[in-house]
Specification:
By secondary structure, the chain is an all-beta fold. It is built from no helices and 42 strands. The chain has 6 domains: 143 residues, no CATH class; 71 residues, Immunoglobulin-like; 71 residues, Immunoglobulin-like, CATH 2.60.40; 63 residues; 72 residues, Immunoglobulin-like; 84 residues, Immunoglobulin-like, CATH 2.60.40. The radius of gyration is 64 Å and the shape is rod-shaped.
C-alpha cells in the first residue's frame, strides 16, 4: 500500500505571477481500492488508479486520484478538475470540469487560472516525486511527497527439520522499490544471528542448538536503508537426528454411542521433530484397535455395552517409533434392550411331514427399532429372520420337539433372550381296525342292502377317518366319512365283504376289517327294492334250536305277506305264511321241516319276510 505524506513547507513562486505567499497546511490521507478512470495517454478508461482520501482541510476536493508508482503517468482528479502529465511528461496540465483548459508551458512549474482562481502544481525536483499544490484564492499551500516503499518479501522456503550443525540453504523471492532502487536482503535465523545484507535472495545457515526456530527475511532499499519490510515466519525444528514424537490429542467423538452402531472418532494429531510422516491407531478398549493409518480419524462400533476408554497412539511411518498414548476419551456404550417374545403357539400333536404354522405375539425394542423373529425347530434348523410373527415348518422324524422363538433388532441385530418352550409330539399316525360290516347276510340278487361298520380311530387328534366297503364282486364303495354304505349284487353266492378305513390327511394310511359273509340269493319273488327298516322286529326264538323255533314279526301296514325258509343254496324249503295281513304283530312256529313234512338237515337257514315291496331276513341255526 503506497501512501502520500503531506509535509509542511514554504512555497516559492515566480514573482511576475504576482503570487502572495499562502498559509501552509498539512494534509493527510491514505490510498484505498482501485479506480477505473480516464487514461490521457490512451484516451480510454483503465483500472489502474487508486483513491486517496483526504481530510476536510482540503476544501477544494474530497478525493484525489492517482496511479501507483512505476506507471508512465500520475493523475490527480478533484471534483473541480484533473491534473495530468502533458505529452512530454515534464509538467502537469489542469483540466477544469466547468471551464476550458488553459495550458502554460513551463518545465519547472505550471500555473493555471480558472475563473479568476490562481492555482499551481510545481514539480520541485523534476523527478515526478515531489510536488507542491497551492491555491492563492484560499491563501493555503500544500507540500505533497510520494514516499518510497519496498514490497514485502515472500516467506522463506527451505528444510523445516534441519539437523544440528548441518548447513542448509533458504530462499525468498524478489522484493521491489517503488523508486526502482536496488533491494537487498537479510535472513534472521531465530538463534540471535542474521545474515549480512545481500543482493542475492538466498542464504545458508546452520544451527548450534536444537529446538524451534523462527526464520524471517527482511528486504530494504540499498539507497535509503531505513526503508524496509519483513516476510512472514518460517518455523523450523532443529533436531539432533534422534526422532521424538509428540503425544497425539485426546480423541473426540460420540460419548454415548449405541451398541453395534459405527461412529467416527478423531485426534488432532502428532508431530515428528525430524519431519517424518505420522500414522495413528485408536485403542477401542474392547480388545481391538484400528489399523495404522495416516488418517486422523477412524470408525468403530462396540459389540458389548458399558464404559470404554478410547485413546490414540502415533508412530513414525519410517522407523515405527511409537509415541506416548493420548489422554483417554470416556464413552458409555448403550445397549438396546429387546423384550422376550411370547412362547410359540400352534398345533402340538402332529405327524411327520405335516406342515404346521406357529406364531408368537412379538417383542418390543426400547429404541423403537423394527424387530425380526426366528423360530428354532429343535431339529438343527431354524426359520430365517423375518418381521413376520409366524412361520411354517414340518418334521421328517417322530419324537418330542421343543420349539422356541428369538427376536432381534433389524438395525443393529441385538438379540433378545429366548422365549419359553412349546412342547410338540411328532408321532407316526396309526388307525384302529374298523369292525366287520353288519347287515343282511342273505341278500337277494339285485336288491340294495345297507351295511355298517363301527368305525376306526386315529391316534392323532382331529384327523378325520374315511371308509370304503369291498363288496367282493370286483367293486368298492367310494371313500366317505360315513360308516355305512349300500350295495346290490348281480351274481349269486357267498360274498365276503369288508370295510377299510383311512386318514383323510394321510390317505396312504389304511386299515381293513375282518370280513362279513353274505349269501346272495335268487330274487324269486321279484323284490325290487331293499328292505325298509320300518319292517323290523323279525326274530326267532330259540336260535339255535333243536326241535322248533318260534318266529315273531311285525307288519306296519296291510300288505300281501309271505314268510318262507331258505337253505344256503337259496332254495325255498318251507312256506309258513302266504296271505294278506293287516298291520299287527304276528308269530308262527317252524318245526325244522320242509313243505313235505320231512325233517331238514341241520345247518344254517334263512327266514325271509316279504311285505309288499319290502323284505327282512333272519338267520337261524337248526341243530339236528
Amino acid at each position: 500500500m503506497k501512501s502520500f505524506i503531506y509535509l509542511l513547507a514554504p512555497l516559492l513562486f515566480i514573482a511576475e505571477i504576482g503570487y502572495t505567499q499562502p498559509t501552509i497546511s498539512e494534509l493527510t490521507g491514505t490510498w484505498s481500492g482501485e479506480y477505473t478512470g480516464y487514461d490521457p495517454n490512451t484516451a480510454s478508461n483503465v483500472t489502474i488508479r487508486r483513491t486517496l482520501i483526504l481530510d476536510n482541510s482540503f476544501n477544494y476536493c474530497d478525493t484525489l486520484w492517482g496511479t501507483p508508482s512505476g506507471s508512465d503517468e500520475i493523475v490527480f482528479e478533484t471534483e473541480r478538475g484533473t491534473w495530468a502529465f502533458n505529452a512530454d511528461k515534464d509538467s502537469l496540465i489542469w483540466t477544469p470540469v466547468e471551464s476550458k483548459r488553459i495550458d502554460i508551458s513551463d518545465p519547472d512549474s505550471l500555473v493555471i487560472y480558472e475563473r479568476g482562481i490562481h492555482r499551481g502544481l510545481i514539480d520541485l525536483t523534476n523527478n515526478n516525486k515531489d510536488w507542491q499544490f497551492f491555491d492563492d484564492n484560499l491563501g493555503v499551500g500544500y507540500s505533497l511527497k510520494l514516499v518510497e516503499e519496498v514490497t514485502r518479501p515472500l516467506t522463506p522456503v527451505g528444510e523445516t527439520h534441519p539437523l544440528i550443525s548441518e548447513t542448509y540453504t533458504y530462499k525468498t523471492y524478489t522484493a521491489n522499490s517503488n523508486y526502482e532502487h536496488i533491494v537487498v536482503y537479510s535472513f534472521t535465523w531465530g538463534d540471535g544471528t542474521s545474515s549480512s545484507w545481500l543482493a542475492d535472495t538466498s542464504a545458508m545457515h546452520n544451527w548450534s542448538s536444537i529446538g524451534i526456530k523462527y526464520v524471517v527475511v527482511t528486504a530494504r532499499c540499498n539507497t535509503e536503508t531505513d526503508v524496509s519490510s519483513t516476510s512472514d515466519t518460517l518455523v523450523v525444528n532443529v533436531n539432533d537426528g534422534i526422532e521424538e514424537l509428540s503425544m497425539p490429542g485426546t480423541p473426540t467423538g460420540e460419548t454415548t454411542p449405541e451398541f453395534n452402531i459405527s461412529n467416527v472418532y478423531a485426534t488432532t494429531g502428532s508431530t515428528s521433530n525430524i519431519g517424518h510422516v505420522i500414522e495413528y491407531s485408536f485403542n477401542w478398549d474392547d480388545g481391538t484397535r484400528s489399523a495404522w493409518s495416516t488418517s486422523l480419524s477412524a470408525s468403530h462400533s462396540w459389540s458389548n455395552g458399558g464404559i470404554k476408554y478410547v485413546s490414540v497412539t502415533a508412530r513414525c511411518q519410517i522407523d515405527t517409533l511409537i509415541s506416548t498414548a493420548s489422554d483417554t476419551l470416556e464413552v458409555n456404550v448403550i445397549i438396546e434392550t429387546i423384550s422376550i417374545p411370547s412362547r410359540p403357539d400352534g398345533k402340538q400333536l402332529l405327524q411327520p411331514g405335516e406342515e404346521v404354522e406357529f406364531s408368537t405375539e412379538g417383542s418390543v425394542s426400547d429404541f423403537g427399532h423394527t424387530i425380526e423373529y426366528s423360530f428354532n425347530w429343535d431339529d438343527n434348523t431354524r426359520s430365517g429372520w423375518s418381521t413376520n410373527l409366524n412361520a411354517l415348518h414340518s418334521w421328517t422324524e417322530s419324537g418330542g420337539k421343543f420349539i422356541t422363538v428369538t427376536s432381534r433388532c433389524q438395525t443393529d441385530t441385538v438379540i433378545s433372550a429366548t422365549s419359553d418352550t412349546l412342547a410338540l409330539n411328532i408321532i407316526i399316525e396309526t388307525l384302529s381296525n374298523p369292525s366287520p360290516p353288519t347287515g343282511e347276510n342273505t341278500p337277494f340278487q339285485g336288491v340294495a342292502y345297507t351295511y355298517t361298520t363301527q368305525g376306526s380311530f386315529s391316534n392323532l387328534e382331529g384327523h378325520i377317518i374315511e371308509y370304503s366297503f369291498d363288496w367282493d364282486d370286483g367293486s368298492t364303495s367310494a371313500w366317505s366319512t360315513s360308516t355305512s354304505s349300500s350295495h346290490s349284487w348281480v351274481s349269486l353266492g357267498v360274498k365276503n365283504i369288508s370295510a377299510s378305513a383311512r386318514c383323510q390327511v394321510d390317505t396312504s394310511l389304511t386299515k381293513t376289517s375282518d370280513s362279513f359273509t353274505v349269501n346272495v340269493l335268487t330274487n324269486s319273488v321279484g323284490i325290487e327294492s331293499y328292505a325298509d327298516n320300518s319292517i323290523n322286529l323279525l326274530s326267532a326264538l330259540p336260535n339255535p334250536f333243536t326241535d322248533k323255533t318260534r318266529i315273531y314279526y311285525q307288519i306296519p301296514e296291510t300288505a300281501a305277506v309271505t314268510l318262507s325258509i331258505y337253505n344256503m343254496q337259496g332254495q325255498v324249503i318251507k312256506n309258513l305264511v302266504n296271505k294278506t295281513q293287516p298291520s299287527d304283530n304276528y308269530e308262527v312256529t317252524w318245526y325244522g321241516d320242509d313243505n313235505q313234512g320231512n325233517r331238514v338237515a341241520g345247518g344254517v337257514y334263512f327266514i325271509y319276510l316279504v311285505s309288499g315291496k319290502n323284505i327282512n331276513s333272519q338267520r337261524v341255526i337248526f341243530q339236528y
